[in-house]
Amino acid sequence: MHITIDKAGAGDVLIHPAYAGEALSYPLGEGRKRPGMMTWLYGRSEGEADVLAAAVGERRQETPERVRRAAGAAGRALLAEGRSSGTLVRDPLAAGAENAGENAGAAAQWLQAWIEGWLLGLYRFDKYKSATKITGDVRLNLRSEDWAELSLAQLEQIIGTALHRAAGTNLTRDWVNETPDTLNPDTFVAWTQELFQDRPVHVRIYRGQELIDRGMNGLLTVGAGSKHQPALIELRYEGGGSDADANANMPMLALVGKAITFDMGGMNAKTGRDISDARMDMGGAAAVVGAMDILVRQRAEVRVTALIAVADNLPDARATLPSSVIKYPNGLTVQVANTDGEGRLVLADALLHAAKLGAAQAIDIATLTGNVGDALGLAIAGIWGDADMTRSLVEIGERNGERLWPMPLIDEYESELKSPYADLRNVGTSTLAGASVAALFIRRFVADTMDWVHIDMAGTVQYKQDAGYAEVGATGYGARLLADYAADYARKHRA
């Protein structure tokens, strides 16, 4: 998957973004200009290039996400046709005269979105395929003459940024798609250590006696039934710029991810014809790893600590039994009413640890409840917590396509968490408002000194069918969202 400038080949397909209501250099009906539609216009002679019209819809409704989706669909269309390269054409007729003097910032944003979408669209998780494996790749070529407002150095920087962001997102996808016989708590820890080895990230792993000594009883409880030890991974990154002291003095942002590498439900075992999606219950942690990868690749001047709670949730003779009571270092006791409500138990450990490290803000992200998908569907995640953080994250999500919808923390619903045996129970007493009740439980483990939001991304972790720049399987949701928030947070602090 590589991008070139001014290196068009004789066999390149010419890719024309097509806008509704605007002329194109080739005849194309308005019905073929609806967002996401791909139309092939084949050359009439051997020397005439084939053309792919990639519809974006109406320009006034254009967003970076629409551009990404059009680009991803275009890349996938070329791959399906067995083409090896395409040249993006910024058609002056399609752009319209009023956009001829488009400023460099807008042009850069559009082009970065296109390249990101292209790279994400060509992603395939095929390491276990043989007979059905699609071989080959598709190169994208840019014509510098189409981007007069951008210098060659700017074009190369845009390409580099898009490559970094796509790489982090595709890393997240790879880990979420991976099979449980390969990815378990031990390999998750090992892969994380290997990923950040020889990079400016301090890695510390808490396991075994260290978890006991620190009272991380959520992890110990959830992981009791697995042959693989639970762990808390701590990743500290304090910027890649020249001013190390300034980076170190920034308020710390904690990114907290849930990594249940297989969620069988513990002793409240899941049932169903196919529960293979249970391997994706580490989607929040994979997003955190992907975000850290993006930040390190971009040498972002941020101060971020990632805390990843890793465990399997399996039934076994040693597994925690429903009705067991555990105690946390903040003094709260929790009755484990249902062992399938495990994510909030391990997030509690990580959030308490974030406060001990001095985090000023914390974002926890997890595939936590099926209930959030019932409420919001599979295209948007729910977010609870601090209003200012929520507002910033929602705005970022609208730009990069990883959307969020603000959800309420209703204090009265805390009655659902009352237990006759402990301070709290880990699941509500009814089936209503399950995602909000889970957020209320997590809130009890957030220090007063720390601003916090909780993101429930259970619905957005995977696509059920090919769409835009994603194939069936892991979406990579959250990696770009968290990386962009960290960069914005650091910029606001410096300002």
What does this entry show, briefly?
This protein is α/β, with parallel strands linked by helices and 495 residues long.
Could you give the topology of this structure?
Elements: E1 3-5, E2 13-19, E3 38-41, E4 51-57, H1 64-80, E5 85-88, H2 92-95, H3 104-121, E6 139-142, H4 152-177, H5 185-196, E7 202-207, H6 209-213, H7 217-222, E8 231-237, H8 244-248, E9 253-263, H9 283-297, E10 304-313, E11 325-327, E12 333-335, H10 343-357, E13 361-366, H11 371-376, E14 381-385, H12 387-400, E15 404-406, E16 424-425, H13 434-443, E17 451-456, E18 462-463, E19 473-474, H14 479-494
Parallel strand pairs: 1-6, 2-4, 2-5, 5-6, 9-10, 9-13, 12-16, 13-17, 14-15
Antiparallel strand pairs: 3-4, 7-8, 8-10, 11-12, 14-17, 18-19
Helices, by number, come to 14
Instruction: State the total count of DSSP E strands.
Output: 19
Classify the secondary structure makeup into a structural class: alpha/beta
Report the average pLDDT across residues: 94
Helicity range: 25-40%
Strands in their spatial order, largest beta sheet: 7-8-10-9-13-17-14-15
How would you describe this structure to a colleague?
With 495 residues, the chain is of the alpha/beta class. It contains 14 helices and 19 strands. Strands 7-8-10-9-13-17-14-15 form an eight-stranded mixed beta sheet, with helices on both faces. A six-stranded mixed beta sheet has the order 1-6-5-2-4-3, with helices on one face. It has a three-stranded mixed beta sheet with strand order 11-12-16. Helix 12 links the parallel strand 14 and strand 15. Helix 1 packs across helix 3. The longest helix has 26 residues. About 2% of the residues have low confidence.
